[in-house]
Amino acid sequence: MSQAAELSCVCGKNGHCVIYNRAICSAGTQEDLQQLSRISHLRSYPRGSVIQAQGEPCDIVGNIVEGVVKLSSTSVNGDDHIVGLLFPSDFFGRLFAEESRFSYEAATDVTLCTMSKPHFERFLAEHPVIEHEMLKAKLDELDAVREWAAITNGHTTMQRVATLLYVFARRSQNQHLRGCPPGSNIVQIPLSRRDIADYLGTTPETLSRNIQTLARAKVIRNISAKQFELLNPAELIRQSGETRADLDRIATI
Amino acid sequence: MSQAAELSCVCGKNGHCVIYNRAICSAGTQEDLQQLSRISHLRSYPRGSVIQAQGEPCDIVGNIVEGVVKLSSTSVNGDDHIVGLLFPSDFFGRLFAEESRFSYEAATDVTLCTMSKPHFERFLAEHPVIEHEMLKAKLDELDAVREWAAITNGHTTMQRVATLLYVFARRSQNQHLRGCPPGSNIVQIPLSRRDIADYLGTTPETLSRNIQTLARAKVIRNISAKQFELLNPAELIRQSGETRADLDRIATI
DNA sequence: CGATAACTTGATGTGACTCAACTTAAGTGG
DNA sequence: CCACTTAAGTTGAGTCACATCAAGTTATCG
Fold first, then answer.
1. Residue in B94, B136, B139 to test binding to A, most A beta-carbons within 10 Å
2. B241 and A95 in contact by Cβ < 8 A?
3. Nearest CA-CA partner of B199 in B87, B61, B55, B65
4. Where are the alpha helices (DSSP H) in A54-127?
5. Which of A170, B32, B80, B182 is such that its CA lies 20 to 30 A from the CA of A44?
6. Mind telling me how many Å the CA of B135 is from chain A's nearest CA?
7. Torsion of the alpha carbons at A144, B199, B110 and B220, rounded to the nearest 10
8. Cα separation of B71 and B63, whole Å?
9. How remote is the C-alpha of A5 from its chain's centroid?
10. What is the distance of C-alpha A91 from the center of its chain?
11. pTM score of the predicted model
12. B243 touching chain A per CB within 8 A
């Protein structure tokens, strides 16, 4: 929060905004977007910083431009669980509520397109078409969260690890992430072991064991701690316990 | 589906509709509601019937009037996980999508206020105020699903069982469910052990053991398989691993 | 290059799943 | 209305995946 650099946002149909074609903004007219760009600002947060603390009044909302934001819930006993990960073009923040039930934290260095919540709420009230897009996006998100809940609940740790690896691989193939030539089977997982473990509902130790087991079985290859090569995608799918179709659907949500 | 009886819906500000003050309809004007009542029908489904199958085209949406509907995902290996429970006044159905990712099944005998999905979608497009209420409701639902995901993931089975019992008790206290004098600590859980287990992400056997352990410790008393008395709510809260405030918040979502 | 954090590997205990038998409740038809 | 059948729930014994605690190894950063 303290370290946040502030620039004026470059959104708009002129194509400057890097996430324009994927974010909800895309439903608006040229004029709507100009209005949006007046109330939005680009902000950078270093890895580990808290964008919005759990239970605190929430004043800002917006879209992720670059990096990964984790949405987590910390319980009384201190251990926290990651209930969602937000990627570029995803919307963050809790609209129409006094405070956020979850904390938003920068899992990597992130750049956000931020807006004041009251401003954006007023904008939505005046632009039902965009509010409609927001509703559709939230319905998709609801499906995705439930789907992920079903996965983390009924499956073994190895199945969850395999699912995560495959889904991240598919996503980076689709989105041509930096440093990943399309077609290659290189996966970037820009999260710490602890974050991945919290997301999968396990511990760093168990996670590490599973990753190493996959590596020993030549299913994946550890390039670095956060970078893997998929040597045997078919086996990874088998290990996930899901059908290929299901995995691909999850990857596109 | 086959057994569904059909009546005309009694919604409207005349107060006939039993869930009127809690369902999204309440945001509409008298005229809006008359329009809604023209496109809606009361329908009854016997326990166990499938209202909407997973992956099938979804044509109907609406509100639960009476009973409990389970929202579940069945995986390839056959075991299914309940990702949500819907109670009276809750909205069911998947708007703005060709097919539903989950199945809607009657966990008890249910009565639904149903509408054709295309009709209701058209209605929403013409009534931004109601669509706005729908968005707010879905944002709350999203928080609730994530909250529940955090609970089922980081906690022991006993903690989940205690949480469920306490939350259901609070809900029935709030809603004056049939047969529950307000102030009494009687809980109705209108679900089979299997359904509860699927919802909590465990097995009927483990669930049963935990219930019996709580009964032996005089924390609860088994009146029947689906009816309990809370003898020691404070201990139940302790067993849940949550704070009282958190539990109460969950109960009101 | 030293200090600190992140990750991996090992040993051990246990919560919960599985398989199986038993008990109770709920239907069903004579 | 009661024997009969079938489903639902409970209890028991055995096993295993995973968490925990602890030590070692590899990154990361000032």
1. B139
2. no
3. B87
4. 117-126
5. A170
6. 5
7. -150
8. 14
9. 21
10. 9
11. 0.91
12. yes
Closest nt to residue A205, judged CA to C1': C8
A142 in B contact zone (CB under 8 Å): yes
Alpha-carbon distance of A171 to A187, in angstroms, equals 9
Which residues, given as ranges, of chain A have pLDDT below 70?
1-22, 175-183
- Rounded to the nearest angstrom, the gap between the alpha carbon of residue B220 and the centroid of all alpha carbons in its chain is 23
Q: Which domains does chain B have, with CATH numbers?
A: 5-145 (2.60.120.10), 155-252 (1.10.10.10)
What are the distances in angstroms from CA A194 to CA A48, A82, A107, A164?
Answer: 12, 10, 11, 14
3-class DSSP assignment, residue B47:
coil
Q: Which residues contact A154 (CB under 8 A, 6 or more apart)?
A: B75, B79, B81, B201
Token pair recorded at residue A24: 């909800």
* Res. B57: pLDDT tops 70: yes
Please state, in angstroms and rounded to a whole number, the distance separating the CA atoms of residues B251 and B253. Answer: 6
Q: Left (φ > 0), alpha (ψ -120 to 50) or beta: where does A48 sit?
A: left
CB spacing of B146 vs A73 below 8 angstroms = yes
3-class SS of residue B187: strand
Size of interface A-B (CB pairs under 8 A): 116
Strand order from edge to edge, sheet including B227-230: B186-188, B227-230, B220-224
pLDDT single digits (tens) B153-183: 889 999 999 999 999 999 887 765 454 455 5
Q: From the centroid of its chain, how far is CA B21? A: 17
Residue located via tokens 């550890």: A222
Measure A150 CA to nearest chain B CA, in Å: 6
